[in-house]
Amino acid sequence: MPNKCVAFGCKTGYDKQDSRSDEVPGDKPTLHSFPKDETLFAKWVKAISRKDFVPSQYSRVCSKHFLPSDFVEVSEDSNMTRNKPKTDKKLLNRYLKKDAVPSIFDNVPSYLTGNSTTPRTTKATAFSRRQRQADELESLSASFQAHDDISVMTVHEIEQRLSTESTRPTGFMTSVYNGVLLTYMICLEDGVPRISASVTINDDLTVCVSVDGQRIPSSQYSDIVNSSLRTMSQFINLMARVKSWAEEPLSRDAEFLIQTAVNS
Asked: Is the pLDDT confidence value at 80 over 80?
């Protein structure tokens, strides 16, 4: 076991020709233990490219898998009897440099390597992207709903908030009178101002709508506000509908006219 190379397909230690005693020492493959340094050890394991391979204390890698530059070129051995003449740079014993990593591996089949490119998981990636987008939309929706909620505001706070809304319909004026928020449109008839439409918000956030001095039945806007205001978007949508009724009489359908007349 200690005299065999663990690289795939390597015959060093298995083939008797590698152990012939009449070979030139410098040409004979040498076996090298895995380094003790954890980082370097991991590099060796990765370089071996054998799936699920775990080296033991007996695992060895032979010199065939290292570059010439990975070895010490000149011996520093103090025993002169083991040194070759200065004209011959080959060592009787070859030593790896401290940072040497095996890099020469031939004919290693791809199914044995753990370094193959991971297939692109298109479906999983697309699912993750859609999930991330859904989470972002949900977060934005929750943030909008929290910002849109006016159910705990006073009429003064609602008036201030309305003044900052860029989507509020134009042409309305606002004021707070006796604890009621007045939102109204004014027109002039023979120089006399008249309220052409209004939306009033009581302190309990119930609403009252009028057009041309007539109170509009709540059935005409129950699809927007059923009982009391809960959100700023309800308020703005209701103002837009009232403005349409005031400025475009043709937008008032038969049911609107009948219900208004009955209410009157």
From this structure: no
Q: How high does pLDDT run on average in the chain? A: 81
Model confidence pTM above 0.70: no
**C-alpha angle with apex 100: 97 to 71, nearest 5 degrees?**
45
CA dist., res. 221 & res. 231, Å (int) = 15
Whether pLDDT at 35 is above 50: yes
Q: Where are the domains of the chain?
A: 16-112, 119-148, 155-263
